Amino acid sequence: MRPDTEDFSTLFLSDTPLLDVRAPMEFAQGSFPGAINIPLMDDDERHRVGICYKEKGQEAAIQLGHQLVSGSIKSGRVAKWTEFAQAHPNGYLYCFRGGLRSRISQQWLAEAGIQYPRITGGYKAMRSFLLDSLERQIAESSFILIAGFTGCGKTQVVFDLASAIDLEKLANHRGSSFGKHASDQPTQIDFENRLAIALLKLHAQNKNRIALEDESRLIGRCALPLSMRHAMQHSPVVWVEESTESRVERILSDYVEDLGGQFRSKYGEELGFEAFSNRLLESLQNLYKRLGGERHARLSSLMIRALQEQKASGKLDLHRDWIRPLLIEYYDPMYEHQRESKASRIVFSGDRNAVTQYLKQTGY
């Protein structure tokens, strides 16, 4: 049998399959990339055992737990663990502290003929390890920021580099008022865990000069660590220059074609289009105060007309009529101000390909 482990670094660097036996509520609050939740106790069972523990002590709580998870319930959960263990023979299981629940799960698996190791210290120890490594690696990293007007292809530059982290991918959000995807963002804990692992992997390859897309403190609802935000505020900047028309086309592709496809995949053709339309209109509505009533009404009218045309014929052409003025009248002045404020830190500017080549040649 493979021994239990507390080598957290290797677990995360090798994307080790993880079997999380905590309750679903615990898993939803924070987990690790690729971890699968097959709980020993569901939320209600855990709640009842917790009350028993407080009122009658550990022995009574353990006895109640065995009563609640017995017979067909127990055999069903063991069967799911067995399926996971057989599919992932190099994996590990864990509970919150690496204590009673993971030991019971391990014992029940052994009784079913499967020796499966657990993670010493459980979720709590792994989370502490990632938080500590996150702060240490931020301090040991040298960042360069990829900036530019909305739609200039900053994310594509990040994708094309060997030493870069896609913060928007980790946050599952494109970073703007229109940046929500059809799927939900991770919790703050999950975002921090993902970021810590991404840094851990780069540093393991001796890559501590790291390119990042220039982001504000919040990417949707996910907040950058204060230490990273502080480091970014003092990092050099490269500026991506692209024509207005190429940016219009990229926005059309990302925020209309791709986003619409996400909603259709999630809800089906008709409901998906309705949800997509509502999302676009809601995103524009969120800018009402900044746009002002007259400009919001004008852009909203153009957006509604474009959505009606798309629904009737599938054509996307009219979407350019609201995208173009939104860029020119709203986003561009805001980013122009940002460029002026960062002028002393800009070390290179050029189109997307030129910026990508510059960064590759300088070690990113």
Automatic annotation (TrEMBL):
Q: Which SMART domains match?
A: RHOD
EC nos: 2.9.1.3
Give the molecular function GO annotations. transferase activity, transferring alkyl or aryl (other than methyl) groups; tRNA 2-selenouridine synthase activity
Please write the reaction equations for the catalytic activity of this protein. 5-methylaminomethyl-2-thiouridine(34) in tRNA + (2E)-geranyl diphosphate = 5-methylaminomethyl-S-(2E)-geranyl-thiouridine(34) in tRNA + diphosphate; 5-methylaminomethyl-S-(2E)-geranyl-thiouridine(34) in tRNA + selenophosphate + H(+) = 5-methylaminomethyl-2-(Se-phospho)selenouridine(34) in tRNA + (2E)-thiogeraniol; 5-methylaminomethyl-2-thiouridine(34) in tRNA + selenophosphate + (2E)-geranyl diphosphate + H2O + H(+) = 5-methylaminomethyl-2-selenouridine(34) in tRNA + (2E)-thiogeraniol + phosphate + diphosphate; 5-methylaminomethyl-2-(Se-phospho)selenouridine(34) in tRNA + H2O = 5-methylaminomethyl-2-selenouridine(34) in tRNA + phosphate
Q: What class of enzyme is it?
A: transferase
Q: InterPro entries this protein is in? A: AAA_SelU, P-loop_NTPase, Rhodanese-like_dom, Rhodanese-like_dom_sf, SelU
Catalytic residues, chain numbering: C95
* Gene Ontology biological process terms in this record: tRNA wobble uridine modification
Identify the residues that the record assigns to the Rhodanese domain, covering every copy: 12-135
Which Pfam family, an example, fits this chain?
AAA_SelU
Q: Which UniProt keywords apply?
A: Selenium, Transferase
Question: Has UniProt tagged this entry with the keyword Transferase?
Answer: yes
Which HAMAP family does the record match to this protein? tRNA_sel_U_synth
Q: Which family does it belong to?
A: Belongs to the SelU family.
Q: How does it assemble?
A: Monomer.
Function text: Involved in the post-transcriptional modification of the uridine at the wobble position (U34) of tRNA(Lys), tRNA(Glu) and tRNA(Gln). Catalyzes the conversion of 2-thiouridine (S2U-RNA) to 2-selenouridine (Se2U-RNA). Acts in a two-step process involving geranylation of 2-thiouridine (S2U) to S-geranyl-2-thiouridine (geS2U) and subsequent selenation of the latter derivative to 2-selenouridine (Se2U) in the tRNA chain.
Q: What is this protein called?
A: tRNA 2-selenouridine synthase
- Its source organism is Sheuella amnicola
Q: Which gene encodes it?
A: mnmH
